[in-house]
Amino acid sequence: FYHMDLYGSKERFDIFPEELSGRGDRSLGDKRREAALSSEKVQHPQEVGYDLEKEVAELAKMYGLDEDREKELELLGGHLEKVESRRPPARTEKAGSQGSINNTSKSSSSVKDPSQSTKQQGLPDEASQGENQSKARADDEAESNIWSRGGLSSGGMSDEWNSQAVSEEVEEEEEEEEAADVFCSTCRIPIRAFDKLFGEHKDHEVAQLPSAVESEKEEIHKNMCKLEEKIAQMENVASHLEEIFITVEENFGRQEDNFEVHYNDAVQVLAQKYEEQLEALGEEKRQKLEALYEQLVNCGKHLDSCKELTDETQELFLENDKAEFMKVNSFNYLFFPYNYRLEEFLKKEVDLELSTLPDFEERVIDVSEVEQLMSSINAIPAPCAPVINPQAPNAATGTSLRVCWGLFSDDTVECYQLCYKPVSNERHSDEQAEHTLKVKETYCTIADLLPNTQYEFWVSALNASGVSPPSERAVYVTAPSPPTIKNKKIRSCENAALVCWESRDINPVDSYTVELSKLTDEENDDIITESIVGIPNCEVLIHLQPTQKYRICVRAQNLGGSSERSEPVLIHTTGTCFYLNEDTAHPLLAILDDGFTISCDELENPECDLPVYDNSFTRCIAILGSLIPFPGKHYWEVEVEEDTEYRTGVAFENTPRHGHLGANNSSWCMRHIITPSRHKYEFLHSGMTPDIRITIPPRRIGILLDYENCRLSFFNADIAQHLHTFNSHFQHYVHPCFALETPGILRIHTGITTPPWTAL
Questions:
Q1: Spatial CB neighbours of 533, under 8 Å, sequence gap ≥ 6
Q2: 637 contacts: CB under 8 Å, gap ≥ 6
Q3: What is the pLDDT of residue 497?
Q4: Interatomic CA distance for residues 572 and 570, integer angstroms
Q5: How far is CA 364 from CA 100, 368, 568, in A?
Q6: DSSP secondary structure string, 9-25?
Q7: Where are the beta strands (DSSP E) in 265-397?
């Protein structure tokens, strides 16, 4: 603030010229008195405001306005705004009374404003102070009258407000009791069914709230999946950017090293050129100095000779004896006269020209090599040959290969050229079609290849300067094709199974793997319970648990990896299972579609002209089943017709094909023939049979083969009757055998649990 003295000084005219223009000059004492009075008036409105608030509170308490106000707040419960918004417009008197209360509050606030304005304005004079005091008293009286009228009107309308607020609270409680049970698809909010029928959502499309929640969850799930995909894409982009960052750093390092190498080479070349030129300049200097020195020595010699002759001449001229003078000039004086010697010396030519010039030859350093080096900074050399990696185990599939290589140098490479072709053992293997691919990375996955096939690969590196030499060739092999299990050659019993398969590839494989899955009623049926690896052949004997169900698959293995699983087969270890060997069947014998039923329609000429396999029966209309290669007990049944003549039993693999079953020592069988008097049953081995009479013709014959106890037993399975038992030591595993001697049908049943009544 400015000091008070400034208001009465002459400097105030310069600071506030417009305010002082209408007031005139005043003395310094008057100004000080006005300043003191103004400071008192600044404090006075605050005291006035405090008294007004106190008087207003007393008036409100006198007329009961404060108690009515507390009741209003309790009854309304914070819903005053809602009551005012829903009040009918016809009630103007109560609104006016409420407005009077608001005006009263405004008037109370207006009472305080003069004090604030007094602080903001300049210091007023005494006349204005008196006017303000009288105006404040009038405002106080008016305010008291307004509060009194407001209290009366407020008390009159409080009862009506209370009743209306209570009714509205009851309505809101009833609305809250009815929760939303449907979803408005148009407004996207949950609503009540009543609102759909009679409310504002009558024409909107609605759905059940649970279904709307489920659909909303599905939509959120879809969006979350999209968000996850976007996150994965961004992560891939970020990883790619990181790789680019690393590549930029590597390229920068390579270029920096390249610049440094070229700079060092250029400096080295310049230093070498400088040394060469400096050495040549020194050699030229030496030659010049030597020539000048030699010429200087010769000049010295001539000067000495001249000086000597000059001295002798002077002595000769000083000689007074004429005879002596002439004597010196005669030929007898030192062989030559002096004058002659002087003439001869003067005849010698003296080289007075400089033997060499002081100027040096202009020498310019040849910087062409340096220019080549400088120009080769941006010229990238052709890369070196890459090194292709050998094939990693299990890195291939049946139709694809992953090839990797490396570049063990700092050469700049733009891309790689990968070439491959299949390897063939034929003479014209070079004529195989070559395939070429261009890739950016140091790896490549080649698809659409043949299974279990060898391919030859080589790779070259490319940049702007050219192509590198090709790498050494590497041989890769694809994984094999899935094997094919021979269903009709599978044999099993209660504790083992013999599985056979064949390879679908031309090239051999390294080994096979058999995978077993024990099937149960649970959901995890595909769990691999056992794997048998390193099987060299196309069959394997597997030990299993009785009364179980297994799913069996086969894989082929080679260096490239494992093939896909073969088509699975199901094996039940409830009994012995075998199939009929079609290669041994007589031409007149037919095997029906189920694979276990044989029939014969005619027997007029068993030795017919139909095509016969090398292993087929030719005389007896018979067929062998699969070999039973499992030790222990094996049981199967044959369903026969009463009027059919047949033979059934077991036989060795080498049983004669041109004879009858049971007529040799390599087969054991039960024969049924019909005579005019009865049904006759024979149990034949080596053409011999015991005398056994069977009163009840069996319709279902049970056969029990016991390798351990060396027994072959026959039963009438319908009545659990034992018919006969062969006691014979089987030196080899045997085949089930069946034959028809009259037109008819035989049905074979396998996979049957051995009945308890077969125990002898």
A1: 511, 513, 557
A2: 700, 701, 702, 703, 717, 748, 749, 752
A3: 92
A4: 7
A5: 111, 11, 88
A6: STHHHHH-HHHHTTT--
A7: 387-388
Sign of CA dihedral 646, 649, 653, 659: negative
Q: What is the pLDDT of residue 336?
A: 53
| pLDDT value for 556 | 94
Contacts of 755 (CB under 8 A, 6+ apart): 635, 702, 717, 720
For domain 582-758, give the fold.
Jelly Rolls (2.60.120)
297, β-bridge pairs? none
| Beta-bridge mates of residue 396 | 401
Q: Which two tokens stand for residue 503?
A: 């390879």
Look at strands 646-651 and 667-674 and give their pairing.
Answer: antiparallel
Q: What secondary structure, in 3-state letters, does 681-749 show?
A: EEEEECCECCCCCCCCCCCEEEEEEECCCCEEEEEECCCCEEEEEEECCCCCCCEEEEEECCCEEEEEE
Please give the pLDDT value at position 202: 78
Q: Give the domain 387-477 fold.
A: Immunoglobulin-like (2.60.40)
- Please name the amino acid found at residue 248: V
Question: Residue 273: its pLDDT value, please?
Answer: 84
The span from the CA of 655 to the CA of 734, in Å, is: 10
pLDDT of 515: 92
* C-alpha separations of 326 from 214, 342, 346, 576 in Å: 157, 15, 21, 164
Which residue in the block uniquely carries the two structure tokens 């009163």?
Answer: 695
User: Both tokens of residue 718?
Assistant: 């319908």
CA nearest 136: which of 172, 99, 108, 157?
A: 108
Q: What are the phi and psi torsion angles at 539 (to 5°)?
A: -155, 155
Q: Domains of the chain: which residue ranges?
A: 212-377, 387-477, 484-573, 582-758
Residue type, 518: K
Residue 704 and residue 726: Cα distance in Å, rounded? 10
* Residue pair 650/667 in contact by the 8 Å Cβ criterion: yes
Name 396's Cβ contacts closer than 8 Å, sequence gap at least 6.
402, 476, 477, 478, 479, 560, 561
| Sign (positive or negative) of CA dihedral 485, 487, 492, 494 | positive
pTM here is: 0.51
Question: Low-confidence residues of the chain, pLDDT below 50?
Answer: 1-29, 31, 35-50, 75-76, 78-131, 133-134, 136, 142-161, 166, 170, 176-177, 332-335
8 A C-beta contact, residue 471 and residue 458: yes
Distances (CA, A) of 122 to 117, 371, 684: 10, 87, 147
| CA gap 79, 713 in Å, rounded | 102
Distance CA 191, CA 177 (A): 13
Q: Which residues contact 582 (CB under 8 A, 6 or more apart)?
A: 591, 623
Amino acid (one-letter) located at 555: R
Single-letter code of the amino acid located at 169 = E
**Domains 387-477 and 484-573 belong to one CATH topology:** yes
The CATH class of the 484-573 domain is mainly beta
